[in-house]
Amino acid sequence: MNDNVSRETNDFGGQFLPHPLKTRIFTVANQKGGVGKTTSTVNLAAALAEGGLHILVIDLDPQGNASTALAIAHHQGVPDIYATLVDNTPMSDVVQAVPHTPNLWCAPATIDLAGAEIELVSMLARESRLIRAITAYEAFHTEKYGQPLDYIFIDCPPSLGLLTINALVAAREVLVPIQCEYYALEGLGQLRKTIELVSDKLNTDLKLSTMLLTMYDSRTRLAQDVVDDVKANFPVEAMQTLIPRSVRISEAPSRDMTVLGYDRSSPGSQAYIAAARELAYRAEGLAPAREETVSI
Ligand code: ATP
Ligand code: MG
To answer: Which pTM value belongs to this model?
Structure first.
């Protein structure tokens, strides 16, 4: 029984989520800005951690929004993912435990990361610096906590530069948040081309596995049209769970919180909990939840 997660606060019907057979590494990418990459990263991560899984969020965006939402110190001088990528600082010196959320850790981004796109250009193995650091960290985590990480989420900036390429080389899956609005699918061609390029040349394991529709407003015809369009074009990848547009979701980061921490009964929280569950059960290989599974 994992006493980090109490029965009362477990929103998965009293059952812990299944562990994937292998750590699932997701790059959360869409070069379009403001579509819900960071919001989806932190809230899916928090919901999966509540389900008893070990989760790491890597903030790979110099804006540092994921670090903020997870209440992780990320002012200049804090060891961050820039130090890992550029100065070879081990990720174990960078990762912080997320306060008040057992099983969740974050590698923060400080503003230093803004320089990384340029500094990486002249470095050796510039596309694979993140995967090397992650591989070392995974071994460290398993050793320290006696179990492997179940999920790693890499929150990308809204661009397809070297930071995003590092994330794509490190990941096995790409999760693309799609905002339910006009032009939603525009620009996706470029992202898919980049994914193809990386999977051809640098990371044959990579695939665009998941699309999550965000900021869905059931009152508008347009939102429904976008949902229909995405589901028609990506019947396997599109998740069934829709994330509604919700004031609570947008307020949470200003309190340095995920929406689960801010207002867990809100429709936004419930949607991310449902999405986390759907994601966990979509894994190709699933190990049964370990002995901590409780039945209701
Ligand atoms: P960027 O490209 O700048 O990194 P992003 O893709 O990470 O942006 P977010 O920062 O997650 O996007 O979201 C953009 C804005 O929309 C934020 O202010 C966020 O709080 C708000 N937002 C995200 N999802 C929702 C939602 N479901 N309902 C209401 N507001 C939302
Ligand atoms: Mg973001």
So the answer is: 0.93
Selection from 280, 264, 289, 259 nearest residue 42 by Cα: 259
CATH of the domain at 66: 3.40.50.300
Quote the pLDDT of residue 124: 86
pLDDT on residue 8: 38
> Which residues of the chain register pLDDT less than 50?
1-9, 290-296
Residue range(s) defining the domain that contains residue 58 = 24-282
Task: Report the side by side order of strands in the sheet with 96-97.
Answer: 96-97, 104-107, 55-59, 151-155, 24-28, 173-179, 207-214
- If one residue of 39, 67, 255, 270 were mutated to test the ligand 1 pocket, choosing by the most ligand atoms within 8 A of its CB, it would be 39
Please state, as a whole number, how many other Cβ atoms lie within 10 Å of the Cβ of residue 37. 29
User: Is 15 part of a structural domain of the chain?
Assistant: no
